[in-house]
From TrEMBL:
Name of the protein in its database record: Sel1 repeat family protein
Source organism superkingdom: Bacteria
Biased composition (Polar residues): 159-168
Biased composition (Pro residues): 180-198
Gene3D superfamilies in UniProt: Tetratricopeptide repeat domain
Organism classification: Bacteria, Pseudomonadati, Pseudomonadota, Betaproteobacteria, Burkholderiales
Disordered: annotated span: 141-206
Length: 206
């Protein structure tokens, strides 16, 4: 079986086993490796749409290689429509999340090329995109580590993303529980807040 980072072709049954392991462990490097398998034309299983999905799962769990792949795919329109804002955002995210001094020639090249093409407003949107995704990664990574579940690489072993759809426009809201009508008071009962009727006074005897 190919080791992580190897570009040798995989058999379909090997890929299926890797996918199951990646989903079970939520290991970002393994998720990214599955994306590489789909991206590699020599695998015989090439599917850029699937590659993008697996890279996305790896990126939101903090894998810089997956972020770089997403930047390149959005830059060139591979697997998804071309999107310079996302391409710049993922490239900037790689810079933010990588170790200080780490060589990033491809990322720097993407940032420089896009910086010459994009408007100031688009660059600001890309920075905002990168910042929001970085906050999400750090928040979920901290939640996973506080739970004590991490793999050998130090990445959270079980990160479950549960989007809150309670305020998302267009999402159906849960129906309110039906109200049970209050039972009608028995005849002659005194209702709260309503003064009781005065009893008729007896006529004086003549």
């Amino acid at each position: 079986m190919a080791s992580l980072g190897c570009q040798a072709p995989l058999y379909r049954n090997e890929l299926e086993r890797l996918k199951r392991e990646a989903v079970t462990t939520q290991n970002p490097q393994l998720l990214s490796f599955v994306g590489d398998a789909y991206r590699n034309p020599r695998s015989g299983l090439g599917d850029m749409g699937q590659a993008y999905r697996w890279y996305l799962m790896a990126a939101v769990r903090g894998d810089p290689q997956a972020m770089q792949r997403l930047a390149d795919m959005n830059r060139k329109g591979i697997g998804v429509p071309k999107d310079n804002v996302k391409a710049m955002g993922y490239a900037r995210l790689v810079q933010r999340m990588s170790q200080p001094g780490a060589a990033q020639p491809n990322v720097v090249s993407i940032i420089n090329e896009l910086g010459d093409e994009m408007a100031v407003e688009e660059v600001a949107l890309a920075e905002r995109f990168a910042g929001q995704l970085q906050e999400r990664i750090l928040r979920e990574s901290g939640a996973g580590q506080s739970g004590g579940g991490s793999d050998a690489g130090g990445a959270p072993s079980s990160l479950t993303i549960k989007p809150d759809t309670s305020s998302v426009p267009g999402m159906p809201q849960p129906a309110a529980a039906p109200r049970t009508p209050s039972p009608a008071p028995p005849p002659g009962a005194v209702l709260p807040g309503v003064p009781a009727p005065l009893a008729p006074s007896a006529s004086p005897a003549h």
